[in-house]
Design brief:
The protein contains 17 helices and 17 strands. By secondary structure, the chain is an alpha/beta fold. The strands form 4 sheets. It has a 7-stranded mixed sheet with strand order 4-12-11-10-7-5-6, with helices on both faces. Strand 10, helix 12 and strand 11 form a beta-alpha-beta unit. The chain is globular. The chain binds pyridoxal-5'-phosphate (PLP).
Length: 456
């Protein structure tokens, strides 16, 4: 017998301000989905329907839902040390083990780590670290941070400012001072005829121009997601990150890699920097660190930045109540241990990633699909109204939302990011059969959406 959730749903609609939702719609209409449990790669709704989660929650539930081994690690840590503050030169065994492990698996031999609770907090902390670092170098004017259009770095005042999506600025009079955005390396929208190497040079040149416009003495860092996710799944062309890294080095501007989504296996390597072969000065991680069983994020510093900061004799006036939470650290350790023990990175490189890529590439001929792009198991279908001219559908049509609705009707969650993009990032533990099912559903959803769009 299914449980009746109508009273509790009414309470939710009356009292809950949902993120990235229209409060009035929540108040006036039924919720789109009401999920009561989840297991493996499936979310289960109030009517017992199992919905295949093709986007790992929000690109975070990398090891799937309801894993007993993670729950066990969480429960045993909560029983032995449910909380501890790592403020005031204090430590605990859980976060100590985690930093030791992170030093082993992070790129560029990162040696220093700071914990926060979300990607937003970690990026915000990274900006503070940049300012502190440059002050320690006797260069206090190096404060400006350059980001990119369409990027997503979080929703705090600073990180929303760094986010290059105008919709996230208007309501709050952002961006704040000290932030600017250069064009994203979005070859589809640019309609470029340049090859990857030439397009990379052209895109990276925007960074050099912006540094010179501001004056290198005023620029603290450049921040970028290895692959822009929320902002339309933009994959940088080959060589882009090498060009960017060279420009940052030339003008002594720190490079921040926002690996909140791409970290912990999404690329088939621990970090997208390993896969793309570049090295940031600061790496920000969250989501896949704990597979979202616990809210936890990390700012990792390379030797140069970490050494300067850890050699400073002044106090670091920054931290959050739950920084380095022992339960979060235990979950992260177990999460990493599972990735290692189950050989998930290699299995993904040899199985899930080629299979998903192959299945989605086969959809490139579909009349609605202009391009298939991605990084590792984070893939995107770029829909188009015209394959030749690369025309976007009228914005109000929300073509990507139509596809996502049909996918849901067929039993899978995919993400409509806007700008006619459909994103897929299934849990890294998805089986071959589940990936085939997901791809079959996407194909059906495209056919249905095409019928609906043609009839409009
Ligand atoms: C690349 C990137 N950075 C930062 C964030 C912000 O993370 P959080 O929502 O945990 O604050 C996100 C969230 O989706 C993200 O995708």
């Amino acid at each position: 017998m299914t449980q009746d959730f109508s009273a509790i749903k009414a309470a939710d609609r009356k009292h809950h301000i949902h993120p990235f939702s229209f409060p009035k719609i929540v108040k006036d209409r039924p919720l789109k989905r009401f999920i009561t449990s989840a297991e493996g790669i499936y979310q289960i709704d109030e009517n017992g329907h199992r919905i295949l989660d093709g986007i790992s929650g929000m690109g975070c539930v990398n090891l799937g839902y309801g894993r007993k081994d993670i729950v066990q690690a969480m429960s045993s840590a909560a029983q032995s040390l449910s909380y501890h503050a790592s403020f005031w030169e204090c430590g605990n065994a859980y976060s100590a083990k985690l930093v030791e492990k992170l030093a082993e698996i992070t790129p560029n031999n990162m040696q220093h780590f700071f914990f926060a609770n979300s990607g937003s907090e970690a990026n915000d902390t990274a900006v503070k670290m940049v300012r502190w670092f440059w002050k320690l170098q006797g260069k206090p004017t190096k404060k400006h941070i350059i980001g990119r259009e369409h990027s997503y770095h979080g929703m705090n005042m600073m990180t929303a400012s760094l986010t290059g999506l105008e919709v996230c600025h208007q309501q709050f009079d952002l961006p704040m001072e000290g932030v600017s955005h250069i064009p994203a390396p979005w070859s589809w929208a640019a309609g470029t005829s340049l090859d990857d190497v030439a397009f990379s040079k052209q895109c990276a040149q925007h960074l050099e121009d912006e540094i010179l416009r501001l004056g290198p003495d005023n620029v603290g860092a450049f921040i970028g997601e290895p692959m822009q996710v929320t902002g339309f799944c933009i994959v940088a062309p080959v060589n882009y990150w090498q060009e960017i890294q060279a420009i940052c080095k030339k003008y002594d501007v720190l490079l921040i890699a926002d690996e909140v989504v791409t970290g912990f296996g999404r690329s088939g390597c621990w970090f997208a920097q390993d896969y793309l072969q570049y090295e940031a000065d600061i790496t920000v991680m969250a989501k896949g660190l704990t597979s979202a069983y616990f809210p936890m994020s990390v700012v990792a510093l390379n030797k140069r930045v970490g050494q300067a900061i850890s050699d400073d004799s002044g106090e670091f006036y920054h931290g959050y109540t739950c920084t380095g939470h022992p339960v979060g650290a235990a979950v992260a350790m177990k999460n990493i241990e599972i990735i290692e023990d189950e050989n998930i990175l290699q299995r993904n490189r040899e199985g899930l990633i080629p299979q998903l890529t192959h299945r989605l590439n086969a959809l490139a001929d579909h009349p609605l699909v202009g391009e298939v792009r991605g990084l590792g198991s984070l893939l995107c279908l770029q829909l188009t109204a015209d394959k030749t001219t690369r025309a976007f559908f009228p914005e109000a049509m929300e073509a990507d939302a139509i596809v996502a609705q049909h996918a849901l009707r067929h039993g899978a969650i995919v993400r409509n990011f806007g700008a006619d993009t459909i994103g897929l990032a299934p849990p890294l533990v998805s089986t071959e059969t589940e990936i085939d099912l997901l791809a079959d559903i996407v194909e059906k959803a495209l056919d249905d959406a095409q019928g609906q769009i043609n009839a409009m």
